[in-house]
Amino acid sequence: MSKVIVEIAVFSVEAALSAIAAGADRIEFCENPNEGGTTPSYGSLVTLKKLTTKTVFPIIRPRGGDFLYTDAEYESIKADILMVKELGYPGVVIGLLNADGSIDIKRTAALVELAAPMDVTFHRAFDRCRDPFQGLEDIITAGCKRILTSGQVPNAHDALPLLSQLVEKANGRIIIMPGSGIRSNNIKEIINVTKATEVHSSARKMHPSKMNYVQVSMNEEMKFTGVDAAEISAMILEL
């Protein structure tokens, strides 16, 4: 099998470093996993940039929920793109829709222009668009370099026919990057069937607190979202 890029989504600086050590080719850097991933803080962005030379694409998403943004939220997105650009990151991850489920081509194209020369990935907002094939063409028109998609279902492995069609119709004009539910036990099949050249996984794992003292009256587990480094290494070994 020829070299396939494995991108790992992470939700903290420590998780990013663990994923890189496990062999990840690229990092999608997010925070707030319970919101599906939002823009990392300035402090996290500065810190990670100092700690690795690996390719890292921060997500630019001002909140969880849908991908229909107000004018104020759009201004926030623009400001965050400029911040990430100034910090020297090589790419960003965005996704904007119109209320009717179409791709927000006008704003997406403007953000691609603002981000240049950074790479721009259109994230799984694509999986909520009305027509994936029209969405594909619209995102190409807007100038994005790749689309992260699970094939409009929760798990990419359940959408192999659509993902294969998207790769075929993209025809090298844009990268189709399957993601969601990709693990070591299915990564090879997904790549072989879809002919994808890049794949995406969060390889999430909940980690226990390392606190020695626990206030039992609070009745809580202070677990946090990290990555399963062994699973990332296992995925890499499948390629």
Describe the 3D structure.
By secondary structure, the protein is of the alpha/beta class. It has one domain (5-238): TIM Barrel (Alpha-Beta Barrel). 36% of the residues lie in helices and 18% in strands. The strands form three sheets. It has a four-stranded parallel beta sheet. The longest helix has 17 residues, at 71-87. The protein is globular and about 55 Å long. The N and C termini lie close together (6 Å).
Q: Number of helix segments?
A: 8
**Might you state the CATH topology name?**
TIM Barrel
Q: Which regions contain 5 or more consecutive residues with pLDDT less than 50?
A: none
Amount of beta strand:
15-25%
Strand neighbour order, sheet with most strands: 3-2-1-8
Return the CATH class.
Answer: Alpha Beta
Number of domains: 1
- Helical content class: 25-40%
Shape: globular
The CATH superfamily title? Copper homeostasis (CutC) domain
Q: What is the rounded Rg?
A: 18 Å
**Number of extended strands:** 10
